[in-house]
Amino acid sequence: MKNKRLVLLLLLALACVLPARAQKMSLGAGVGTDGVSIELTAALGGHVQLRAGYGIATGLVGATINKISVPEHPGDPSGTSVATPLTVKLGMNEGRLLFDFFPGSSDFHISVGAHMGSPRFARGILRNLPSDYNTAGLVVDNYLVKATGGVLEAALCGKGFGSDHFAIKPYLGVGYGRAVKKKSRVSFSVDLGAQYQGKPFFQAQGETPTGRKKTVTLSNEVLENLVPGFEGYADKYLGWLVVWPTLSAHLYVKLF
């Protein structure tokens, strides 16, 4: 929640400052692999525009794997296993600050900047877990990570150059279109790029016996106790997620 407030305050400050500096401004809405977003855009001359926005993709797209093998008793991978469904959904919730550079007179542009906010970019939800997971759960740094009604949720995160709790993900891309056009009130833009988010890691909500809650990082050892064989999958698949591909389309309306 603190991260979200920080990003919103930054974007609000930009919204207050930009009108005094910008020649023209527009407001836009977009959709893409970085979620559904809104953006405030300012033209800073004929070759540069600044975009400040906020996007969210929580729960928009997901897939379910019906049979994931987990131990019947938490932390006992050598014991009896049961099959549970795993649902994976996008979970992005972040601000973005981007500069578009137009090298010529056309609408082609090169974009640089960063996405900032929550490091979470996907959610993993295990359902129908045995009853032991509602009480015993998994112990991480003296915090108990447990299921609620047989449901255990973990976040797949990437911090980029930020921290485990506030991500700063550099972005580089290209696109076509201008958010602010001289002779048109409505404009359209398409962008293709990538965010660097670093090696992905998992986090989950933990709780002490006294009720204190904290977001904790799940190590490979903890994840292997929960899903035997996780490390093999991590080495095989998570390496592809160091860079997050971003394809988006935006529709803008000129404010002035």
Descriptors for this entry?
Porin, 3 helices, single chain, 256 residues, eight-stranded antiparallel barrel, mainly beta, six-stranded antiparallel beta sheet
In short:
With 256 residues, the chain is mostly beta strands. The chain has 3 helices and 16 strands. The protein has one domain (2-254): Porin (Beta Barrel).
Please write out the topology.
Layout: H1 2-21, E1 24-32, E2 35-43, E3 48-56, E4 62-71, E5 81-90, E6 93-101, E7 108-117, E8 120-126, E9 138-140, E10 143-145, E11 152-157, E12 167-176, E13 186-196, E14 201-207, E15 213-218, H2 220-226, H3 230-237, E16 243-254
Antiparallel strand pairs: 1-2, 1-16, 2-3, 3-6, 4-5, 5-8, 6-7, 7-12, 8-11, 9-10, 11-14, 12-13, 13-16, 14-15
Note poorly predicted spans: none
CATH topology: Porin
- What's the order of the H and E elements? HEEEEEEEEEEEEEEEHHE
Number of helices: 3
The number of domains is 1
User: Regarding CATH, which class?
Assistant: Mainly Beta
Report, as a whole number of angstroms, the end-to-end distance. 33 Å
CATH architecture: Beta Barrel
* DSSP strand count: 16
- Mean of all residue-level pLDDT scores: 86
